[in-house]
Amino acid sequence: xxxxxxxxxxxxxxxxxxxxxxxxxxxxxxxxxxxxxxxxxxxxxxxxxxxxxxxxxxxxxxxxxxxxxxx
Length: 71
What we know:
Order of helices and strands: HHHH
Number of domains: 1
Number of strands: 0
């Protein structure tokens, strides 16, 4: 992990709710921040940790079926 701040500083900084989070409310912003940062660190360490976040490396030829115009 290559963060300039200590974990406590990162959590304290992230515990300040974003506008969307404040609108929804949070019972425990500190615990929410810890969970968000833990998941973020996990995904940073293992890019395949979130299957939906894996980017495929394909060319357009591999993704599009070409349609030949009629003769």
